Amino acid sequence: MRFLFITMEPTNNSVLKSAAAELSREFDLDLKVSIFNLGLNHSRDTWEKLEREIPDADFIFGSMLFSEEIVRPLEELLDTATCPVCMITSNPALINQTRVGKFSLQKPVEDDKPQGIFKQLASKLRPSHGGNGESQRQLSLVRNVGKLMKHLPGKAKDIHTFISAHQFWLNGSKENMKRFLCLLVDRYVPGYRGVLPQNDPIFYPDTALYHPDAKKPFATTSEFREWQRTNRPGKDAGRVTILVMRATLLSENMLHVINLLRELESRDVQCCIAYSGGLDFRPALEGFFDPGSSESMPIDLIVNATGFSLVGGPAETKSAEAVGILKKIGVPCFNLIPLAFQPISHWRENNLGLTPLQTALSVAVPELDGAIEPHVFAGLEEGSDRTLPLETETRALADRITRMVRLRKKSNADKKLAIVLFNFPPNLGNAGTAAFLDVFESLLRLMKKLKDDGYAIELPESVDALRDKLLEGNRLVFGTDGNVAAHYPVEQYRKEFPAYERIEPFWGDAPGELLNDGSRFHILGAMFGNLFVGQQPSFGYERDPMRLLMAKDAAPNHAFAAFYSWLDREFGADALLHFGTHGALEFMPGKQVGLSQQCWPKRLIGALPHFYCYCVNNPSEAAIAKRRGFATLVSYMAPPLEHAGLYKGMRQLRELVSAWRSRPSAEALDEIRELATTLDLDRADDATGDEEYVTWLNNELYLIEERMIPLGLHVLGQAPSAESLADNLALLVSHARPELDNRSLPELICQGLHLDYDALAERHEEAMELRESWQKVTAICHEAVKRFIGKLPASMPNGVSITTMLDGTLAVRMDEASAYLHKSAGLKPRQLDKLWHFLNGLLAAMLENREIEAVTRALDGAYIPPSPGNDLVRNPAIVPTGRNIHSLDPYSIPTPFATKAGERSAEELLEQYRRESGELPESIALILWGTDNLKSDGEGVAQALALLGARTKTDELGKIGDVELIPLEKLGRPRIDIVVTVSGIFRDLLSHQVRLLDKAVRLAAAASEPEAMNFVRKHVRQQAAELGITEDEAAGRIYSNAPGSYGSNVNHLIESSTWEEEQQLADAFVNRKSFAFSPEGDWQESPEILRSALKNVTLTFQNIDSFEIGLSDIDHYYEYLGGVSKSVEVLGGAKPKVMVGDTGGFGKGQKIRSLEKMVALEARTKLLNPKWYEAMIEHGYEGVREIEAHLTNTYGWSATASAVKNWTYQQFTETFLQDREMLERISALNPNATMSMTRRLLEANSRGFWEADEGTIEQLQELYEELETRIEGAHSPEV
């Protein structure tokens, strides 16, 4: 007799084997039980073995089978089985394969009463209604029914088998496995009826507390505490609970959990193990640890050792329910990973770390609960069914848990805190800066709050004093970019940080060249009592062009490692707070996710409790900080958005255009053209008619005026102004929202005004009449929101919250806004009540800013609830900020909405190229980032699939698991070849989407279609012939860095001015980004295939999916889109067209624009716009640095794509450096950044990007020397 058991995880496998062996011995049976753990091994050999064994099987059982790459092949194999098949708690497609005796879920018989009754029951057992996450609910449903059907003949007995299978398996002790096997032998092996004993399943308690030294589990906390007082006296370093599934305990598969418990107890931490009957841990958490429960036991930390989310399983997750109980308990929840879907050896040897399936189930989904610290601590070896502890990882994990518990127990007065600031690119003008954050103002506010909370902190007198102490101090004595707070002897470093030996192959013998005097490292920063504020050292490659060009793997330099070693071992920090987005630690080499103790981020962070203030609009890099830096994130808001407006002569020009519209004349048109030329708004195409020219010019002015731009920098804890709130919320409701039944406010206004919304939203740039109607609609929208907000009080009376105030005035404000919309657009007064309530909640969340309090709660060791990361407009759920940013469920994207948007923008991209070139592009180089795709729910992925003529497929649970080609006759155009460069973060976070894209390309390449209709197939065949490789090798189209590596380094070469020829920029990009994804799931270095593919490219493209981050705000846009464009130009000998998808204002969907147009728009609305730069200058030092950064990022587009017009540099020079008053302002605030601006302009001229007259260049050279002299003499060395 032969039984096949098929699972995706090992929980019951070892006891099943033992049970089979005991039965065979006891009853002299020839019982063979074959166990297939397809989660651990689904190689071709495994499938072939399973295929061979199915025909000889007497019974096939399966459980916990969900992954698409397993479900479809298994479904086909089960179709061939002739023996009974029983599938439980799996994908519905597999459950429907169940056919036991006369009972079958494949072919229901409607008039069979037992079958009909059971059909209702079976539907509740399907994963879509709870799946494995609610096993106790399933058991309660089947227990009584099972007892009844046991005694009925025929089909009812087979139904009883199906029900009993749930009961035996979900109560999976060895005894239950024996009873299960006895049942199967008795009923489904001929000749054995009545031979073996038949017993009902044993049911075990749904929840209990457990300790391996106790004789039995504990039903109540009082019982456990009494035992603990007797058996574990004197341990008072805090208490931790470890959560496990009951099945793990019943199956005697606890070695890894007990090992962790022993390590914690050896550190004097009290421990208990809590189990739950399934994967819903609410009953255990509520019953044992909820402070509102009479049986509550205080704990300091929760350790989830299951590898799954707290509420749910592979089929689903219910994060809201998990967050609810975790908020009640209020302590951190560590998320541990027992490797269930890959062997330990694979994890150790693979630079990727975790497989996509393990990452999704054990990392991404638990993050939705607010879980932190995703540590691998155990796993399976090939051929083993028992989970084994990873000793090194477990000891390090126990250290981290102990330090977090200690942080909770320690008084604030005794705590030592380390706050780390950043300096990138490294120079004195950039020290202490972070994305969108006024660092020093925010830091001082936090320091004051910490002092109020009892921390032993010495406060500086002002922001300037704080900055001066950190950035000046004794820096000239040591020749550093900041004050030296301490020294760390090199010998001590070698003793305390043994991993220094792994650094020496890259950086030479310690101490290396950076931040040391030969015998001591310089630790940059300053002491403020028990608070150390430090400056993260450079990662060292910035000024070494060859390393930037060639580096694929690396290590931190000695100074970087010494800094973190000193924080922990010498300063003795109790907690580490990285301040702002973002530093370099989490990007150090190592596995992508599921790091080992040999990975550099783990080596550097050690056991330090790690917290991170992170901008809420950057979920992808935030996820890297969580997964690779093991940080608890505390989100902060991006600066508010406001309309860019018009300035200088643009206002006059708009007035002239309006006058000409009323009374056209040749003289007025000449005046318009003259002023437009003065403002560098003259159109390249002069052969247009008067009406067309004025329409174009009016459109350009409108684009500038209405463009939404972030103003200034955010200050932690500071709420936005009423004006900026109106602009932000009006933009938010200009997009279709569920609060408006998936319609936008402008759409409703158009309906009231009897206007064609679709025509206005999509074509208002084409005709003056459409533009004017659209302006009217958007003005009404903005005014309505403004009236709803009303006048906000400057301060609140004592005891009155902002929420209370807003609720109290809601009715009046609703009436005011509704009356205005009724009068202006004919909307019914109560039509928008739902919207106003929604906006009222948003106002409260934005105004009641608790970011600083959230930081202090995190430093107390409290639970920080999760939050999505996004722009406010795309996802209002990001407020309130001060929460722990999470990513998305990778099996949910691209969403249906994102798919439609991606398909629409892909066709618009092709149409625009066709209009300009007269034909379709055969090959497009696409840039896909993690951040943009997380924020847009995968719109970029959908675009790429649409270009290929492919689409996603969802499984029975609604999860995206596969792709398929759209037939050419339905597609109606050729399949476009794509060369996709994904960021290292996209590679890490969206590995499932990488697989989908790769499969779509390979399906297209293999399709038997005419090459004229399939450019993928055409190019793949050409490349295979040219390079002498197989078509499968030539089909590689998804490229990124080597695992654990990030970026192209093109930006570093440009920022550091260490490149000589364009070839170097192209070489850097190709060398770093030439790792092609393979069907086996790894990344293979393939530079020649990438070069060959890029030679066919004629168009490069990237989405700008943010309302807050534009082409000049960060260097990564020109690093990626500019880098690939330059590579195409160098390799192919011609410049490609470069286009971007612009999401920048009112309206629906993206606008496809040329790169040159977007760079010019960025310059006019930000860099040269007084509204933008004056808001920056208000932030002093950091604001001037932001102006310099925008200039450098704009310059990056000259270097990579020749996309910057001469007037940009000229107007910048006139605005900031030739205006003496402005020059004095910015040079007084940040002389180093001002000198960098001057140097960058001189470089732009010397490289031929800017044609300036000799007088201007001489003036800049003199200014540079003047600033250099001023900076060198500003501070005399302190002895």
TrEMBL record:
InterPro entries: BchH (IPR011771), CobN/Mg_chltase (IPR003672), Mg_chelatase_H_N (IPR022571). Its EC number is 6.6.1.1. It comes from the Bacteria. Pfam families: CobN-Mg_chel (PF02514), DUF3479 (PF11965). Pathway: Porphyrin-containing compound metabolism. It is an enzyme of class 6 (ligase). Residues 166-1256 form the CobN/magnesium chelatase domain. Keywords: ATP-binding, Chlorophyll biosynthesis, Ligase, Nucleotide-binding, Photosynthesis. GO terms for molecular function: ATP binding; magnesium chelatase activity. It catalyses: protoporphyrin IX + Mg(2+) + ATP + H2O = Mg-protoporphyrin IX + ADP + phosphate + 3 H(+). One of its GO terms (biological process) is photosynthesis. Residues 2-163 form the Magnesium chelatase subunit H N-terminal domain. Belongs to the Mg-chelatase subunit H family. PANTHER family: MAGNESIUM-CHELATASE SUBUNIT CHLH, CHLOROPLASTIC. This is magnesium chelatase. It comes from Chlorobaculum parvum (strain DSM 263 / NCIMB 8327).
